[in-house]
Amino acid sequence: MPAPIRLRELIRTIRTARTQAEEREMIQKECAAIRSSFREEDNTYRCRNVAKLLYMHMLGYPAHFGQLECLKLIASQKFTDKRIGYLGAMLLLDERQDVHLLMTNCIKNDLNHSTQYVQGLALCTLGCMGSSEMCRDLAGEVEKLLKTSNSYLRKKAALCAVHVIRKVPELMEMFLPATKNLLSEKNHGVLHTSVVLLTEMCERSPDMLSHFRKLVPQLVRILKNLIMSGYSPEHDVSGISDPFLQVRILRLLRILGKGDDDSSEAMNDILAQVATNTETSKNVGNAILYETVLTIMDIKSESGLRVLAINILGRFLLNNDKNIRYVALTSLLKTVQTDHNAVQRHRSTIVDCLKDLDVSIKRRAMELSFALVNGNNIRGMMKELLYFLDSCDPDFKADCASGIFLAAEKYAPSKRWHIDTIMRVLTTAGSYVRDDSVPNLIQLITNSVEMHAYTVQRLYKALLDDISQQPLVQVASWCIGEYGDLLVSGQCEEEEPIQVSEDEVLDVLEGLLVSNLSTPVTRGYSLTAIMKLSTRFSSLNRIKKVVSIYGSSIDVELQQRAVEYNALFKKYDHMRPALLERMPIMEKTATNGPSETVQTNGETDSTILDTKHLPSISQPASQANDLLDLLGGNDVVPIIQTTVPTKPASAGGELLDLLGDLSLTVIPPMTAYNKNGLIIEFTFERSNPNPNIAVITIHATNSTEADMTEFVFQAAVPKTFQLQLLSPSSNVVPAFNQGSVTQVIRVLNPQKQQLRMRIKLTYTHKGSPVQDLAEVNNFPPQSWQ
User: Fold this and answer.
1) Which family is annotated (predicted)?
2) Could you say which of 396, 506, 519, 703 would form a disulfide bridge with 392 (CB–CB 3.0 to 4.6 Å)?
């Protein structure tokens, strides 16, 4: 058989291919020749054929049929064969294939070989693709080589030990004696790999972390020698001595100093030296400085040192390299909460980054700018951020507008400034604001009684200029409907009043109704505004005509509004002024619903709560809404939760306070739920002054061996009942019945019907979420009769 072509010739031939199909044909032809050679057990050219296979593998072609040939090369006595064999094993094999286990004995023999380079090949391969089984079998040999005096083998053994620890963490203690002398090595390669090994051990074991904290002075000494040493051509990179080793040591110091006062104190001085003596003109120095900053921020460093670190990040913001500026902004964003004043000093530089052409830098600068806003700089920062909102890409407008709303609500110096700022945002980026922006601004305007005339005049002017920003148009329509009389009378004191007639105002609102830019929601706002003006303006006939036209609108919502408003004009005209009067001042409350009364079909019934005012609990509305489906959807009333002190309620203690000194009739208890170790028991009490109210106390116990966490009990009853569910004593049901969770339910049953209830239980048990539904129908007659 003729000798196969050399690797260099194969590469040259493949590169001459003009199309993908031609290249595939060449590869297939060469693979066929290589297979034939493998079948004939051609030992002479096995190494050359495997090398060519590896090149094809790098090009993305299948080369798995060469796996066993790699093992044969590893078993060869020639170094050139072993080198290609181990390289092939690292590329073609991994621990998912059983073939790699056949290498274990060869690697063990080569780890004990007399030639250091063969030992190095075995260490590299084990450190690259050794499975947990191989690591367990060969960890002893690696530990021996870690103690050898040969620096070439020690650095490779240290890296191999890192892989062994990652695969089999319990073998970590085996390498502990060998690490004692690693840091006293003069060879930088051994030092580097030793620091990597120590870092891995500290990250994986708290015991190792506390053990190696005594090495901090030694690490500080090594780092000091590096920054104070003169020029060394062997380790110099852009004028800095071994920056890779410096970065690794700084990273290890960060881990050792975190949360430890003594270790942090020992490294304060050297960190200050690195921060002040490192050259910043080259990227190498910037890498070391960045690692120094991260270390200073993570350990318990002195305040002066933290200010120095933030100043370094401030200098990074002036760097021409975009990556360095991005890194600086990201780091400042992480530290702004702990060192707010120090970051504030670089506010102008951060704001300048908003003008950067790079999108990622602009986003980080925007986030950091919002984090820097406070009561002292709110006017200046909002001016810059509003300018940014005007010119930024559409991708930024939603986040920027949301941030401005939150900052203005928190730090607004005056109500007029607050209203002007929100209106400016709506004018600039109204299409990008959140859905709750319109009701929030309406509430702000309503509560600012002295600003009503000014606000309605500003919004009217904004409508004349632009009606494309729908949230702004909706707020303007609402305000004109509420305060249109102030607009026409020209009572504005904050700025020069404008002369507007009633017909001009109605023209604008009618224009919104017919505009193609208006959404159905906006048309609804406009129609309602026109209707409200019927009690504020004298143009009653014109308003009646507009409203009657939309009684036949194709938009069902608009048609319904118009029909109802027509009915007001015709049948209930005597009630119209009272119904359309100005909205009262709104109190800002949680959006989770009422807290004191229970609502049924839109009517309020306060008989269920004969108590003092109870604050509403902060609970996602979806939890209550989910219960609407528990009894079929149409015949249930959702629960209303209120907050009480999170202590178990007892009949003689907090519960008496809640019910107001009521005398109670005790009823026999019942078991409502018993499944998977969770037992729910109901105890009953009836109040004598109002016998229609039943007070049910649930007791949840857990007989399993693990706690049930995130426990939530929910209930629903038919609409003929009304239900109030108070807060539980805890959200953890202890294991082995060592405690219970209690919760109080109050049920109003005015028609004395048989009580039935559907309950929903959600909790986490042994890390798995559990959810279950159950129906309770066997209530004692005394609880409802």
Assistant:
1) Belongs to the adaptor complexes large subunit family.
2) 396
The three-state secondary structure class of 231 is coil
Number of H helices, E strands in the chain: 33, 14
Residue 145: which of 168, 167, 118, 166 has the closest Cα? 118
State residue 528's pLDDT score: 93
> How much is the pLDDT for 229?
77
Find tokens 């890409």 and name the residue.
393
Residue 187 to residue 511: CA distance in whole angstroms: 83
Confidence of residue 630 (pLDDT cuts 50, 70, 90): very low
b/e sequence 18-53, b meaning 16+ C-beta within 10 Å:
eeeeebeebbeebbebbeebbeeebeebbbbbbbbb
Residue 122 is which amino acid?
A
pLDDT higher than threshold 80 for residue 665: no
In degrees and rounded to multiples of 5, residue 664 shows phi and psi of -120, 145
365 CB-near residues (< 8 Å, 6+ apart) = 329, 350, 351, 353, 354, 356
**Tokens (6 digits) for 256:** 């050792």
The one-letter amino acid code at 513 reads L
The span from the CA of 457 to the CA of 505, in Å, is: 11
Q: 718 CB contacts (<8 Å, ≥6 apart)?
A: 631, 635, 636, 637, 756
DSSP 162-186: HHHHHH-GGGGGGGTGGGTTGGG--
- Within 8 A by CB and 6+ apart from 340, the residues are 372, 374
> For position 166, what pLDDT does the model report?
93
The full DSSP string for 73-125 is HHHSS-HHHHHHHHHHHHHH--TTSGGGGGGHHHHHHHHT-SSHHHHHHHHHH
Burial of 237 by CB count in 10 Å (0-12 exposed, 13-18 middle, 19+ buried)? middle
Q: Please give the DSSP secondary-structure letter assigned to residue 584.
A: P
**Contacts of residue 420, Cβ cutoff 8 Å, sequence gap at least 6:** 458
Work out the pLDDT band at 194, boundaries 50, 70, 90.
very high
Write out pLDDT tens, residues 239-255: 888 889 999 999 999 99
Identify the pLDDT of residue 335. Answer: 87
Compute how many other C-beta atoms are within 10 angstroms of the C-beta atom of residue 6.
13
Report d(CA 475, CA 458) in Å as an integer.
11
Angle at which helices 104-111 and 132-146 cross, to 10°: 0
pLDDT in tens, 376-423: 889 999 999 999 998 888 888 889 998 998 899 889 898 889 988 988
CA 486, CA 480: separation in Å to the nearest integer? Answer: 9
